[in-house]
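Class, discuss our next protein.
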Amino acid sequence: MKLNELIEAAGLTYGDSRNPDIKLVCADSRRVEEGALFVAVNGTTVDGHTYIYNAVERGAAAVVCERLPAEDPGVPCIVAESSADALGKLMSAWYGNPSGRLKLVGVTGTNGKTTTATLLYEMFRRMGFRAGLLSTVCNYIDGRAVAATHTTPDPTELQALLSEMVDAGCEYAFMEVSSHAVDQKRISGLQFEGGIFTNLTRDHLDYHLTVDNYLAAKKSFFDNLPATAFALTNPDDKNGQVMLQNTKARRLTYSLRKPADFKGRIIESHLDGMEMEVNGRQVSVSFVGRFNAYNLLAVYGAAVALGMDSEEALIALSAMRSVAGRFETIRSPRGCTFIVDYAHTPDALANVLNSIREVVGDRGRIITVVGAGGNRDKGKRPLMAKEAICISDRLILTSDNPRFEEPDDIIADMYAGLSEEERRQTLCISNRSEAIKTAYSIASGSDVVLIAGKGHEDYQEIKGVKHHFDDREKVRELFGS
């Protein structure tokens, strides 16, 4: 493409008479080749402006930046108010605006993004449509799996994946929209058909610093939806209506407690599923807990908003199965039940444990194995331990992904949130494998063991190295299966 075509598509001003052919667009100077357009992004850890001269030496034909370099690099330099925003729009133009050729729905919130986006993807494929998925667990181009590196990829990878979806004949695409992605403009240049808000609780304060900043990032996603899109929110969450305050999109709601466009009620629950009422119709689903009831209502509401027949949507819901590592149930030959779940925030942990308690009642004990991630929000560690012990009969604190912290230090932060009496019900075992074995050794009969925090992950990140570790594999090894 000619430089001026790209610049115009990104909404930037270009007054230079030079108009070179652009052979690729990139924000990583190490990937620059002859004829590249280099976008100098001011990131969270690296400022791309420091690599402008390096990019030109490697053959960059032009540069997009937020401030001009001290000396003329000898190629056209286009100034943008936000080069991160420009990158998304440039990549969209480079790939021919793929999101405009898909019905793209974004899901944002603290918990439930993966389940909601994945179930929508599976539902529409089940109904005979070609669809794509961008999620924490895995990306899919129709039926082809593509490994996921981030909840929401960077604009270069994101637009490439959407373009592949278009080429594969996909009509729909569903994606998780993280607060980081919104704040870092990774979704710039995307055209959304709809947005879904699940809930908002404390998370990612190591990055956002305050809950208000975290909320603002989520809200800005809805603020920028076009009038042609729908905005589907959960008014049972105290921030649900906040998401709709400034949106131009069509406003829709789903709820278990309040009047809503998509109203649900849990009739009966057990560890293998529940009976629900959705807009007056009863349906059996293989999901457990109020948090999953909200996820299913969001899926149902979005499907109907996208034009699916409401009866067909209910039938599809009844055929859905749980997402990998989300309330994944594994039965022991001894009678006890293990549940592996990704819950890694205080609220998510409480949701899962309350769902288990509602089903188990006093017939069995709940034994929880949980840790917290290293180099992340330390403030949530004691809160997670407190939530766990308040609902569990026994608690085992262990290592999650310690990253560059010492596991025992993380466990100590969690342990500090417990009273003396609660500590008597708690074990601290930093080796995660040993912690799971210990839970198995003390579980019996109708007991339920929750292994929380990692879910679908098949690794532990220690000192910058990812070591293979899968909670589900460890459980099945114990069961001899």
